[in-house]
TrEMBL record, chain A:
This is Serine/threonine-protein kinase RsbT. One of its GO terms (molecular function) is kinase activity. Residues 40-139 form the Histidine kinase/HSP90-like ATPase domain. Pfam families: HATPase_c. Coiled coil: none annotated. SMART domains: HATPase_c.
Automatic annotation (TrEMBL), chain B:
Residues 158-269 form the STAS domain. InterPro entries: Bact_StressResp_Reg (IPR051932), RsbRD_N_dom (IPR025751), STAS_dom (IPR002645), STAS_dom_sf (IPR036513). PROSITE patterns: STAS. This is RsbT co-antagonist protein RsbR.
């Protein structure tokens, strides 16, 4: 799996269908293994990526995911950027509330994903699309 | 590039007059490409069939591969690439065996300058390219349908419901649990519960690589549906990393019993049903 993935540069994957969510998951797992995340952290970051990629698909109407191996000088990590040009999020605080959903899910995807990663940044505005950047550092 | 009526008749003529040499050379090129993975007899048959179809099409004045006169030629090409795709040949090998015809024709044109000109060769080359691309496309189509078939088979295969004990059925989930599979799993499980009259079902997620909210929701729905039918569900195979992820995500399984392994789940059910499991004293060797 690791072969064929050049860790030096960002790996991009478009998200347009359920199969693409699976591809994102596999890509994230490959990079997470390569930057030597522990099994628990691998599972956490893969799950977070799965949630956010599905949000990109379901609420953003599809978009792109970019996975990069990063290093802050002390430890390696994995950075994932989810971008879509969908309707954006009107009330971010509400969207980040556990149990709130507009799509019939459990309402834990966005808030849960934030708890699964070390750094979570979200840029969104109504009509401006959504861009979420998450980082998980190796311990 | 379309062939003029003149060119196609000249080429039909060439293919007929030099039939033996062309087919022989073509077979040699193909044999080299496929490296003995197809029997000589089969190769000869394929080449002769292609040769006949091509000569026919050109004889009728086909200007290119999309022409109506070339219908049979297209059928033969499609048949050839279908066969090779199913036998596991690569797309390059399949297309290259068509391009072998160029070699064969070049050899003939070089040997006898009177039968054709460079212009003829270029025009004919264009036709062979079309044939190659056509094979390539049929090849890809065949492969895609194979993949679709396999995906469907996998969907069926990967969701068995097994009977573990009298009144206890289990669903070992393996791989990604998307909506389509979750639906199949739920249907199978509920049907098996009815068929076997089992009051207990164990859903084992050892083989599920990541449990996100969607997977959890599918499992929860299945459990609720089974409960409506009067069956109790136990979720087993929760590995440490999955447990930590579920906690961080904030998913709650409520009063659904969960166990780390399938063995634990079975023991739990057996205890509930009053079946005693005890170790027998090892029999002493006389």
């Amino acid at each position: 799996m690791t072969s064929g993935v050049d860790l030096g540069r960002p790996q991009a994957q478009t998200v347009g269908s359920d199969e693409d969510v699976v591809r994102v998951r596999q890509l994230v797992r490959t990079v997470a293994v390569a930057v030597k995340l522990s099994l628990v952290d691998q599972t956490k970051v893969v799950t977070a990526a799965s949630e956010l990629a599905r949000n990109t698909l379901v609420y953003g109407g599809g978009g792109t995911v970019e996975v990069t191996a990063v290093d802050n000088g002390r430890k390696p990590g994995i950075k994932i950027v989810f971008a879509d040009s969908g309707p954006g999020i009107v009330d971010l605080d509400l969207a980040l509330t556990d149990g709130y959903t507009t799509g019939g899910g459990l309402g834990l995807g966005l808030s849960g994903a934030r708890r699964l990663v070390d750094e979570f940044d979200i840029q969104t505005a109504p009509g401006q699309g959504t861009r979420i950047t998450v980082i998980k550092w190796s311990r | 590039m379309a062939l003029s009526a003149d060119e196609s008749s000249r080429l039909a003529e060439l293919l007929t007059s030099r039939a033996t040499q062309v087919t022989q050379r073509w077979t040699e090129v193909m044999a080299g490409q496929l490296r003995g993975r197809l029997s000589q007899a089969e190769l000869v048959r394929q080449v002769q069939e292609l040769h006949r179809a091509l000569t026919d099409a050109l004889g009728k004045g086909a200007a290119d591969l999309t022409a109506e006169e070339a219908t049979e030629l297209r059928a033969v090409l499609a048949e050839l690439s279908r066969g090779q795709a199913r036998q596991g040949f690569s797309a390059t090998e399949t297309a290259s065996s068509i391009f072998g015809l160029k070699d064969a024709l070049l050899a003939e044109l070089e040997a006898d300058q009177s039968v054709g000109t460079l212009r003829d060769y270029v025009a004919f080359s264009g036709l062979v390219d079309q044939m190659g691309l056509f094979t390539f496309e049929s090849f890809v189509r065949t492969r895609e349908s194979l993949i679709a078939d396999q995906a469907e088979q996998l969907l069926e295969l990967s969701t068995p419901v097994v009977k573990l004990w009298e009144g206890v059925v289990a669903v070992p989930l393996v791989g990604t649990l998307d909506s389509a599979r979750a639906q199949v799993v739920m249907e199978r499980l509920l049907q098996t519960l009815v068929d076997t009259g089992s009051p207990y079902a164990i859903i084992d997620i050892t083989g599920v690589p990541a449990v996100d909210t969607q997977v959890a929701q599918h499992i929860l729905k299945t459990v609720v549906a089974a409960r409506l039918m009067g069956a109790d569900c136990i979720i087993s195979g929760i590995r440490p990393q999955i447990a930590q992820t579920i906690v961080a995500l904030g998913i709650e399984f409520g009063d659904i019993a969960t166990k780390a392994s399938l063995a634990d789940a079975l023991r739990h059910v057996l205890r509930l049903t009053g079946v005693e499991t005890s170790r027998r004293q090892p029999r002493r060797e006389a």
